[in-house]
Structures are given as C-alpha cells and as structure tokens.
Write a structure and sequence with these properties.
119 residues, mainly beta, seven-stranded mixed sheet, four-stranded antiparallel sheet, 11 strands, globular
Length: 119
C-alpha cells in the first residue's frame, strides 16, 4: 500500500511556474506507475501526466504538453510536477496517484493541493 501527500500548490500569475511535489510512503513505491490528475470546480477529473516505474517513460495530454514535466526519485519516494507557462485554465486541485501493478488501477490518491492561476 502507498500513502501519498502532495505539496507545493499556491497562487501564481499567468505565465508563471509552480512545482508540485508528492511524497510517498510504502516499500514498493518504485514498482508503481505514478500520475498527476486535476479537478476544477464543476468539471470532471482530468489526467495531467504519468511516469512509469523507472522514470524512463512519461506521457502528457496535449493540454499540458511542453509546459508540464513529471519526474520521480525512487530513492526519495517522491514525484514532482514542474508546471511552466501556467494559464488560468490550469487552476484546479491537483492530485497525485499511484497505479497498483496488480490491479492496474490508480488505487491510491493524495488529498490534493490547490493551484490557482490569476489572469
């Protein structure tokens, strides 16, 4: 099992940057694919980025490609999301999630961190 705690959210002006961090507990962290999702008020949860167990493969939707970068440090059990060129539409609660290698589902979620981008 994995416990996830996000940090790093806040208020930033459009065009600015923020770096989110997700700290994980659990001995098997390095076996989990990790991802970031976000949810804005009144909208469905949206996939933002994912990274495989080794950090060698990443994937982003077009909405954030070339602006966001996901990375991980298995030794420190952390996952980061570097967000550049932020836009007001990036405002949301951002969640870190871990995909269980057995169930192949994102079974573990953090509590979320708020990101607000002002225009």
């Amino acid at each position: 099992q994995v416990r996830l705690v996000e940090s790093g959210g806040g208020l930033v002006q459009a065009g600015g940057s923020l770096r989110l961090s997700c700290a994980a507990s659990g001995r098997t962290f390095s076996t989990y694919e990790m991802a970031w999702f976000r949810q804005a008020p009144g909208k469905e949860r949206e996939f933002v980025a994912k990274i495989n167990w080794s950090g060698g493969t990443t994937y982003y939707p077009d909405s954030v490609k070339a602006r966001f970068t996901i990375s991980r440090d298995n030794a420190k059990k952390t996952v980061a999301l570097q967000m550049n060129s932020l836009r007001p539409e990036d405002s949301a609660v951002y969640y870190c999630a871990a995909r269980d290698p057995i169930t192949r589902s994102y079974d573990y979620w953090g509590q979320g961190t708020q990101v607000t981008v002002s225009s």
